[in-house]
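P.,

For your records, the input lines for the assembly:
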Amino acid sequence: MNTYLKFGAIMTVIVGTLVWLAVGGVSDSKSYYKTVAELEKMNPATRSERLRVAGDVQPGSIVRRGREVEFVLTQEAKTLKVVYSGSEPLPDTFRDRAQAVADGRLGNDGVFRASRIQAKCASKYETKPGQNQGAPVYQEKRTS
Amino acid sequence: MENLGALAILLALCLSAYAVAASITGRMRQKPLLVLSGQRAVYAIWFLLTIASGILVYSLIAGDFRLAYVAKHSNRAMPLVYKFASWWGGMEGSLLLWAWLLSGYSAILVFTNRNKFRDMMPYVTAILMAVQAFFLVLIAFPENPFQVLAVGRGITEVPDGNGLNPLLQYWTMAAHPPMLYLGYVGFTVPFAFAMGSLITRQPGDAWIHTTRRWTLITWMFQGTGILLGAGWAYSVLGWGGYWGWDPVENASLLPWITATAFLHSVMMQEKKGMMKVWNMVLISATFFLCIFGTFLTRSGIVGSVHAFAQSPIGKYFIAFLAIGIAATVYLILDRLEYLKSESQLESVVSRESSFLFNNLILLASCFAVLWGTIFPVISEAVTGEKISVDAPFYNRVNVPIGLFLLFLTGVGPLIAWRRSSLDSLKRSFAIPSLLGLGVIAVLLAAGVRHFYGLVSLGLCMFVTSTIVIEFWKGSRAIARKTGQNLVAAMVELTHRNTRRYGGYVVHMGMVLLFLGFTGAAFNKDATHDVKIGDKFQIGRYDLKIRNLLDGDNDNYAWRRAIVDVFAGGSQLGTLEPEQRLYKVSNQPISVVSIRRRLNEDLYLNFAGTTNDGRNMAIIQSFVFPLVSWIWVGFYVTLFGTFICLVPPKVKMQYMRTETVGYVQKHAPVIE
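Structure tokens returned:
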């Protein structure tokens, strides 16, 4: 057999295997990204799929109880109760008013069961005007 | 002074445009003085950007909080080193760093090649300066680091700045961005040479020979940057991982993967005259992935834990990428006839084919990572739903790829060029295969059942023994001939062919990295709510909470657990995980406590306090087997790369024995 043919055959097998793995990986780990406000408008068929829901952590709503952490995500006056029971520690940036992404499934009771939480506070690497908490940059003394 | 900085950037921008124009017209109209003036412009740009950077750094250190950038990223209380590191703490400054590094690289390049490659260099200069101009446009207009806060609103005094995020105030994090940037920026140089070579229709491989060291050094910087980031995540972030397949991490990995493929496939071109088009494609892909990586981290197009601000510069990047890629594709297609292969693939079992497999598999990995990273963007464009993929996707694809690569690491260097007989395969691989299988048998007997874990450890043994045997055979031959002892003979051997034996050392480093990655298959973790006196177990360790302390200082309030660690009845030490709440930023930070050992790390994180009324401390404990080998493997890789950079004592001997015909044909090209 021609060397290039042989080589092509082996390549096809390898690439085919990888594509198969990739497709499996996608269907295993894909999740729909929604904001809290978009969640209600969602197609009921995909509501039961794995979701990643983004919103802001309602101040004062975080309750830590053993391995479970409860909190409320809000956005545009919509709220979503989230129960987190994953093994990974919550990120340091997870706190009141942080932007958080909860990864998990929506239960029939309307409570979101998250297995992973990502959070970024608006001021983590870059501050947006008006969103920095307590930092004095935008509280300049005016002398005019 | 900020005006001076902004002016320097504007002038540098004008000069870079001039350098592009002067180099190209000078070359086309055969006006050497015009070309020379273009080169002088390169030096001038470096000088101007050094001034601009100096002014920014001075403002950061002096605390000139009128500047928006300084107010955002520096404050009075920060240690000097982090004030300096604020240079690349934000968008504007890090783009300035990009531009400054590129100008420095360009100046060095133009200087060292001032009497070489006269026909090619004007184009190389022009390409470098075109990239330079792009970054200077960014910092001259949309992302100017010298923007003054709220001018015209009557503000005259700003008391203090925001400071660098406390999470980032850690030594590896200070060094991580410049290392990555040295990598990102450095790939511009081989790319420019490749394009210069294409434009001028160079017959030989001059661009590869002259950029080999650049590529290696750049590759090393990029790898160092990635690993520093991983080390930081492990020691600081408190989740115990070093890699999360986050889009921004992926962005730094992508060009590193294609560069690794490039470093291997250039050997095919040097020794066999094959894969010339492929090398052009690889170096271009590497360069554009570097730009793409900068774009990804800077534009906020994909969601990431690295929360960089949304910014309007995305469209600048897209325009640059589109034009650049189109031009490159056109050039390569137009010059295909100059890139014809000089030899044929003769057998599937040969060095050539192992290089091809290596390249294929690296590219597959790169593509999978790229695909996963931009999946949300693509799916939103196609279906209207933003669908993201996660670590399981990346691991599913990349773990088998990694293992196959590890296998090739052992096989590739020993297999003969052109074709390999069954006999020679047996000779080379009988002992390593037996040793690898032996390791798997022992682990199976010990009760290990993790499939990938077993394969990986077996392959680690296999590759290690091939490398050891190579060194041993070579050194023994030299020792017999010269009467030296084995160690001296090994040094001599390595010195004779630094590329080959340095390469083996790099491969050994990779094996150790894989050993460290494999440990993750056997991680353990547990979370406990504890009070003073509580005991719990993880792995072979018994942990006892001796005390819980609270405290307060100017900068932050803290809570700390004093945990005694016992194993087998004897005390091994004390770990003190801590949680801090920084007052200015109101940000909690965990300071993890790690007992690092080569066999396994014990890792404790003070995750918080229950607020359900019991007020208990939440302690997360992890055991990470073998994770230290990642850091050891990195240093070995670094060492191997340095060996590769040492000029070999016996020049060209290896290449002549391998491919007589090729070297003779190309003898004038190779210096």
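Two observations worth noting. Chain B has four domains: 1-164, 206-409, 410-516+637-666, 522-628. Chain B touches chain A through 82 residues (CB under 8 Å).

Regards
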